[in-house]
Amino acid sequence: MAKLLLVDDDIELVELLVELLTLEGYEVDVANNGQQALEKHKNYDLILLDIMLPVLNGFETLKQIRAKYNTPVMMLTARRNEIDRVLGLELGADDYLSKPFNDRELVARIKAILRRTGCNRNSTELPHQWEDVEHATLKFCGLTLYPGRQQAIFNEQDLKLTGTEFALLRVLICHPGQVLSREYLSLNGLGKVLSPFDRTIDMHMSNLRKKLPPRSDNTSWFKTLRCKGYLLVAEK
């Protein structure tokens, strides 16, 4: 059973979401402000984090979580400002959902995050042969990816990628030298269909560029092809 931490000060909404997510088979704990979230955020598979929080707002809470931990985080907020969405993704949020939202969409996004971070304990187990593929170690230009523990290593250094960043890098490494559209990356990396004008993929790719050290041959890791997508530069 996956464990979720719901961080929101709207008591009525919290009660409804706890009931919904419990019925879906999740174990749900609650924090009513950012400080409480920081005090109890360990050992959860996913954090659902509101932005407008007392004591410590969601952005600052996320920033402090990301300083030490890679726990998946989905931002939940009534604010529809595009700047807020971009800021949340830049700070390391795995996904962003505006209130009011459809219950089914929330559950679908939770399942997608847990699936790509290897924590979807409510899903049917994969057949053994597929499980072997899903957990196969990948190597590319000094990078080693361990899907079983969602860890990316470069020259013995842990890159501390979020689950979403890891998922995107994994998809790209499986297709070196190929142009992958944003739609393809969203569906195969994030587990969801890309919405029009959605910049989520671009923000996560920007974060990946910042975290990846220089390659030994000094070439760029990625190329952005306007109106086409992204390409992981193949080894020489």
From TrEMBL:
- InterPro entries attached here? CheY-like_superfamily (IPR011006), OmpR/PhoB-type_DNA-bd (IPR001867), Sig_transdc_resp-reg_C-effctor (IPR016032), Sig_transdc_resp-reg_receiver (IPR001789), WalR-like (IPR039420), WH-like_DNA-bd_sf (IPR036388)
Q: Which residues bind DNA?
A: 135-234
4-aspartylphosphate, modified sites: 50
* Entry keyword set: Cytoplasm, DNA-binding, Phosphoprotein, Transcription, Transcription regulation, Two-component regulatory system
User: Can you name this protein?
Assistant: Response regulator
Q: One Pfam family from the UniProt entry?
A: Response_reg
Organism listed in the record: Seminibacterium arietis
Q: Kindly list the places in or outside the cell where this protein is found, as annotated in its UniProt entry.
A: Cytoplasm
Q: Kindly list any coiled-coil regions of this protein.
A: none
